[in-house]
Fold:
Amino acid sequence: MPRLRLMGAHEIRVRLGGISRQRIYKITSRADFPEPVADLRQGKIWLTKDVEAWIRKRRPYLNDT
Structure:
């Protein structure tokens, strides 16, 4: 059974190069950002594959990391 890989806001911030919490909130609130799979007490979480697909399309300079 494949493992379910998830990302929270912190992991997305790190993946996008350490941007601010305010900036990650703006990015994850965009209409073109993937929908979260859950909204937990600690915050929203996304499927890693969805976030990585968004990064590949909209931040191609980060694809080599």
User: Anything to note?
Assistant: The radius of gyration is 12 Å. Helices lie at 9-15, 21-28, 48-58. The CA atoms of residues 3 and 48 lie 11 Å apart.
